[in-house]
Fold each of these.
Amino acid sequence: MLGIIGAMEVEVESLKEMMENQEILKRAGMEFYKGEICGKEVVVVRSGIGKVNAAICTQVLIDVFQVDAVINTGVAGSLNPEIHICDIVVSTEAMEHDMDVSPLGYEKGVIPDMKTSSYPADPNLRILAKSSIKAAGLDVAVFDGKVVSGDQFIATPEKKDMLCKLFGGDCAEMEGGSIAHTAYLNQVPYLVIRAISDQADGKAEMDYPTFEKKAAENSVKLLVEMIRAY
Ligand code: ADE
């Protein structure tokens, strides 16, 4: 069974609408929608925004629903000049960019005493995403990319630059890194799919509301084809 997380309602509402044999279970203040999409068993949940909500949500999917894999769908700010608004990023890896123990001599982004602080996405889910692009009938480009996550909305060129240069991020959002971290600790495969709603720059607060819905829909379009083929 696939676990599907979106932080916001706009990121999961159409998945809930297309779900059959729906059953709703509440855990940790979140509503988990269990049912079938394209004849496949899935659990769809809105985690709420930010790394803590997303980590707790992932752990519930793993412990309570015993999902075989976790996919995060949603929107993100682009950090890569080649990746434009409404394009899609399929994660190669994901990390938490606001982890900072540098006063103690660790590099920024490094979590002390962890084997890694950037978590590779599941290769099979990445292949599934690639092979689902055509069927999704998208009018945008799909990129492989590194997802960097923090409890911050990125909306200045300085911060954007820092995330590019220091971490090599391709898109910034607020949950993927913690979902990846939780999946890694539990040895559960994961993938992040994010469509671009803004460019994480000085125009981000204007672009975001304009493109949020279209971007969220693009991410879901690719995800639905992945579910169909899963
Ligand atoms: N999600 C969408 N755009 C974002 C941004 N610029 N920063 C963080 N999360 C986002």
Amino acid sequence: MNAIQAIRGMNDVLPDAVSAWQHIERHVRTLLGAYGYEEIRPPLVERTELFRRSIGEVTDIVEKEMYTFDDRNGESLTLRPECTASVVRAAIEHGLLRTPGRRVWTMGPMFRYERPQKGRYRQFHQIDVEIFGIAAPSAEAELIVMTRRLWKALGLSGLSLELNSLGSRDIQARYRARLVEYFSARADALDADSSRRIETNPLRILDSKNPSMQALIEEAPRIIDEHDDDARAHLDQLLAMLDEAGVEYRVNPRLVRGLDYYTGTVFEWTTGELGAQGAVCGGGRYDNLVAEIGGPANPAIGFAIGLERLVALLDVQSVELPVAMPHAYLASAGPRASILAHAVAERLRDAVPELRLVVDAGHGSFKAKLKRADRSGARLALLLGEEEARNGRIAVKDLRARGPQSMVSIDDLAGHIVRNVFAE
Ligand code: ATP
Ligand code: MG
């Protein structure tokens, strides 16, 4: 029979790679907790309407990337392509917004029907962080210094920060008119997507990934030239906070991001070390979204980090990852010894809760078992034969040092392990 394979663009994270994922997850959990963020876990599936309304009808995501299907009741559902909308929906539904300054985060898979390539997958994972109820640029500054600290904690370097401000909906409306004028005058140079978007969503043209569009985009009017006093003051204050905190950044007037809900500040952390998929974190302010989803007016801001890209960067930068090898590997041979093995192992685990102990479950000679013990990376091999089992003893061999094996009484085994493995 032919073997069933995974779906294109949806990857297995195998044991060899998982230490990088756990490294990231561990640091994220600790760091976000330390900054006062609470974890939230919304479902992976939502009503399609939620994403259409928040991300915007005329965006790459909603137009061509969503996994949308009718359930058995004929209701249109979608696998989440991002999770800000879900977090906002949950926050409204469960009254989380009643506490101002609520900080939440979540982590998990997202789904987009994109063309799979390095750094771009159909199931990928994000860490998503949101702050509700803070209109001041202090919220932006907090998210930015926190991500800077995260890169450092992970052992990553060379990430650069770009930011821009999209201003209020009024500013966006004025800017939109300028863009329509600009792109209409150059209609011949537009690709098909962009031509269509002149009418529907001209801002999205700036987000085009098509290389042939880049020169035109580079020359387009800049949104910061449409800023009013409020928008200018907000951005200036944020930049002053970043200067004071020693954060390096570049203001990029072309940065617009791919979702419609942003208003005000948008930002991206990028690296030059991952080829075309260099954005590892993107976010911004979305002060109107809570009301647009049906909640009380509430300023909000957030970002999402792409985990696959962080994992790839850890690899490119050869960051050393802690690997948890077993401390000990217990192998038995003979009928009585095999029956005893798990009982001995459980006594050890009771006595030394931090012990990482693997019990050999295979057949074969002690020689074969010792080989498996060695391959497991364990420090000690614990060898339980029939004679040892009868005498209440076990042979202990240090796999990482030369020397004879020693006979230890099973009653003393926990103490022996603590002295030899944990005392160093
Ligand atoms: P890009 O410009 O690379 O398409 P995006 O602007 O669509 O990214 P967001 O929707 O803001 O990205 O998501 C935030 C982060 O999630 C991105 O910076 C990236 O690291 C990651 N990401 C987005 N789409 C994918 C994907 N298809 N595969 C892997 N990671 C992704
Ligand atoms: Mg994208």
